[in-house]
UniProtKB/TrEMBL annotation:
<dbReference type="GO" id="GO:0016559">
    <property type="term" value="P:peroxisome fission"/>
</dbReference>
<dbReference type="InterPro" id="IPR008733">
    <property type="entry name" value="PEX11"/>
</dbReference>
<protein>
    <recommendedName>
        <fullName>Peroxisomal biogenesis factor 11</fullName>
    </recommendedName>
</protein>
<dbReference type="Pfam" id="PF05648">
    <property type="entry name" value="PEX11"/>
</dbReference>
<comment type="similarity">
    <text>Belongs to the peroxin-11 family.</text>
</comment>
<keyword id="KW-0962">Peroxisome biogenesis</keyword>
<keyword id="KW-0576">Peroxisome</keyword>
<keyword id="KW-0472">Membrane</keyword>
<dbReference type="GO" id="GO:0042802">
    <property type="term" value="F:identical protein binding"/>
</dbReference>
<dbReference type="GO" id="GO:0044375">
    <property type="term" value="P:regulation of peroxisome size"/>
</dbReference>
<dbReference type="GO" id="GO:0005778">
    <property type="term" value="C:peroxisomal membrane"/>
</dbReference>
Length: 237
């Protein structure tokens, strides 16, 4: 008997049962609220409520990062790459892992379990590690994107050759081309996501002193862009 097709409710239930599902949902909600606040609506009561909501969700999201650094440790442990690419993975996973590790202590500060005196130093250290991790991730994604583009050209060439020789297209090659193009678009979206997150991390490292990226609207849009892409990625897993 074939497995029944998953409907929207099934998918939503499965999505929200995962840590990443809840975290990315909260991320979209948080930066939507921040964007509305940054646009300075005339209703002051709405602004106050949304600002409080955004702050509360920000603290709540940190709880979902407990132990998350172990994923990066495992990724490095089981890496099969060598030489230069392994160095990039070390930068990417190492930076991200340190960020998630420090975020646990940031959460403890926010909840009052640790002294507020640690908050500024932890925020700077975690943002710096996060920025390093994104730099490594973007570099790795660019290498993967280059390989996908090369693969796409090879499949296109094979389809053209088949058409000339046989006068018909190969369904298997067409399907493969579609899959490669989807992966290329997805990889491009991941780069955009990391760039958006990098803007926010850079702003935190610089203490909001860089003109242009320190704008509340820019930061809210960057967060919403990143949240939307990560939501889509985890929804389709």
């Amino acid at each position: 008997m074939s497995k029944p097709q998953e409907d929207f409710l099934d998918k939503t239930s499965r999505f929200l049962a995962k840590r990443e599902g809840i975290d990315k949902t909260l991320k979209v909600l948080r930066y939507t609220a921040r964007l509305v606040v940054s646009l300075q609506p005339k209703d002051q009561e709405l602004t106050r409520r949304l600002a409080a909501f955004e702050k509360s969700v920000g603290v709540s999201r940190k709880a979902f990062r407990l132990g998350k650094f172990l994923q990066d440790v495992n990724s490095l442990r089981h890496s099969q790459t060598k030489d230069a690419q392994f160095f990039l993975e070390l930068v990417a996973y190492g930076g991200e892992g340190i960020y998630y590790f420090l975020e646990q202590f940031t959460w403890l500060v926010k909840t009052g379990a640790l002294s507020k005196d640690l908050e500024e130093r932890l925020a700077y250290a975690s943002a710096f590690a996060e920025l390093v991790g994104y730099a490594g991730n973007i570099w790795l994604s660019l290498l993967k994107l280059q390989k996908l583009m090369q693969q796409e050209r090879e499949v296109e060439a094979a389809i053209t050759k088949t058409c000339k020789e046989e006068g018909v297209t190969d369904a298997a090659l067409e399907a493969k081309l579609g899959a490669v193009r989807f992966q290329r678009r997805l990889r491009t979206a991941f780069i955009v996501q990391d760039l958006a997150d990098s803007v926010m991390a850079l702003n935190d490292v610089a203490g909001g002193k860089i003109r242009g990226i320190s704008s509340p609207v820019v930061l809210a849009l960057a967060g919403l862009t990143s949240g939307g892409i990560s939501f889509y990625k985890n929804w389709n897993l």
